[in-house]
Amino acid sequence: MKRVLILCTHNSARSQMAEALSRAAARDLGVALDVHSAGTEATFIKEGAKTVMAEIGLSLDGHTSKTLWDVPEPRSFDYVVTVCDGAAERCPVYPGQTVRLHYPFPDPSGGSLEDWRAVRDGMREQFGQFVGALRDGTPPPSTR
């Protein structure tokens, strides 16, 4: 089973959405993935993220904002994917065979529900392609 960590600055929206979308894609495509998300700082899950994910049948209830050190075995991920430039700049060095990818998405915070939906839909496509590549044994897209 491959392990995936999705990082953002606050682990409050984009990384949480990407975690849920990756898990759903893995389930739908029959790929065994252990997916986690974290931030360089922990805060809270934003309501906009909860709302737009619920619209597509994915709940963020039970999700909590956490830092890298709050996830199981924080230094043993096969893939580390950053979804914002701030996290990419502060992402720690990972030992071993970790593959780092950067899929930046704009921060929808403070925007309309349409802004949130646009980020969600872009992430749904990107992380679907990522999981599909893992299923097919091909290199995942290197950047967005």
TrEMBL record:
CDD domains (UniProt xref): LMWP_ArsC (cd16345)
User: Which Pfam families does the annotation name?
Assistant: LMWPc (PF01451)
What is the top-level taxon of the source organism? Answer: Bacteria
Q: Provide the leader sequence positions.
A: none
Note the Gene3D superfamilies from the entry.
3.40.50.2300
Which InterPro entries does the record cross-reference, listed alphabetically? Answer: Ptyr_pPase, Ptyr_pPase_sf
- Which BP terms does GO give this entry? response to arsenic-containing substance
Annotated Phosphotyrosine protein phosphatase I domain ranges read: 2-133
Q: Which UniProt keywords apply?
A: Arsenical resistance
Q: Does the keyword Cell cycle apply?
A: no
**Name this polypeptide is given:** Arsenate reductase, ArsC-like protein
Its taxonomic path starts at: Bacteria, Thermotogati, Deinococcota, Deinococci, Deinococcales
